[in-house]
Amino acid sequence: xxxxxxxxxxxxxxxxxxxxxxxxxxxxxxxxxxxxxxxxxxxxxxxxxxxxxxxxxxxxxxxxxxxxxxxxxxxxxxxxxxxxxxxxxxxxxxxxxxxxxxxxxxxxxxxxxxxxxxxxxxxxxxxxxxxxxxxxxxxxxxxxxxxxxxxx
Length: 152
Known about the structure:
globular
């Protein structure tokens, strides 16, 4: 299994840009999600499993699982864009493969095809146990559009 700490890191400027943008997301803050890795075309997000993000059976809700997958893919794409560009999701499809359970979930967004306008990402979400055991609980694909950054 790949060790995220051994993966290529994005430049400090890109990492700061992604982290600053992530910190402005109210939903990610509400979910208590955090950025675990920022590399060129690849971002890992972590969501602690706690009662506030579960559904009636005690598993992480599909909405929370999907939200971190969507954000991981969006930020993976953003790592490849210039400073004047932002990213918006055009569409995504998620397959829930197993009940999302564990100590935390890890969402990984990976750029499959970067483009001038549209970018396609692979989405994976793993349930991670306290001992580090990982199980793929969701996967999907996402299309994103590059947009010009709004003037401040």
